[in-house]
Amino acid sequence: MIWQSVLEKFKELFGSEGEIGVYFAPGRVNMIGEHTDYNGGHVFPCALTIGTYGAARKRTDKKIRFYSLNFEHLGVIESSVENLKPEKEADWTNYPKGIMWAFGEKGMSVEYGMDLVLYGNIPNGSGLSSSASVEVLTGFILRDLFGFDVSNQDLALIGQYSENKFNGVNCGIMDQFAIAMGKAGHAIFLDTATLEYEYAPIKLENAKIVISCSNKKRGLGDSKYNERRSECETALAEIQKVKAIHSLGELTEEEFEEVKSAIGSDIRIRRARHAVYENQRTIKAVKALQNNDVTLFGQLMNDSHASLRDDYEVTGLELDTLVEEAWKVDGVIGSRMTGAGFGGCTVSIVKDKAVETFIEQVGKAYEEKIGYAADFYVVEIGDGPKRLY
Predict the structure, then answer these.
(1) Any idea what the CATH number is for the domain that residue 102 is in?
(2) CB neighbour burial string for 238-276, b if at least 16 within 10 angstroms, e if fewer
């Protein structure tokens, strides 16, 4: 069991006395609805059975000691609950530190430190939300160790607040929400403007969800993510001069076509068009699933990728290659990039009988074209965070 090896490492590093808790928070994949979450639109993510494991113990002083089995070369990184601030040398620990800071900002001061050992089996930098997984996990641990009165939905909002204000990534709510609120066998149909949500069962008769990891690393903070967000905000402000709306997510395709001439540049028209059309695709996709029309769902996934490639320009050679090769495989119902883009992963729905061929064929073509291998994960939809021990 993975959690047992994390606990063993904790005891080896920090000793076995006192109460040590072991916890898990999942990663997530977004089935459709990309770059809509900060545009007031809908998203359709689900939690995965891969994620981040943590062993933690409360301390009686102010010291925090962090260790990650994924970054063993960094050793134990020490900090303090006093004067929490982001530091380059703190590396990955800026995520858990950010959560401790955010709890304080929300009136729940973390008075004592803790020892924490983490291990994630989400590919790092893959776009399956390893950072949000660490954030939600840390929040869940703080709630358990210190008895804070917060719901899982609060943990999602605290995670987003921390990533925005502490780590400087202007992310929407989707990643943290999907992880904190995950439910096995279901995706979450979330309206990011209101946080209203419903669980929708993912019934894939004789098909699997396959994640293809491009192995092209990306860093969100220094990518074009914030630039895209700003382009959409400008487009929204231009539309607001002619139509009373709060977000691009409020517009139908027809309404957008009527007001797009108010947007002052062709690039911003394309960015806003993606946000509007992608939101409508997401609404249609959930309806398709409710009607057991997996074929239509797959077609909408394909259309989503084309829009992300052409209008939003966040795919790049690696992701386009994975998707275009996937589309050639008989038995692929739909395939698209998932996550912020600029590297990371694609998500495909593949018929059971075609999964092996898919991995072999797409893998071979990708390595020939890109020069290094992709990794493939046949995934299942899992629950949100929990205490394991």
Answers:
(1) 3.30.230.10
(2) bbeeeeeeebbbbbeeeebeebbeebeeeebbbbbbbbb
Please state the length of the chain.
389
pLDDT the model gives residue 221: 46
Does the pLDDT at position 323 exceed 60?
yes
Domains in the chain: how many in total?
1
What is the pLDDT, as a whole number, of residue 124?
Answer: 66
Residue 145 domain-assigned?
A: yes
Catalytic residue among 37, 115, 175, 311: 175
Domain that holds residue 130: 2-202+383-387
Q: Is 383 considered catalytic here? A: no
Quick one: pLDDT band at residue 123, thresholds 50, 70, 90? Answer: confident
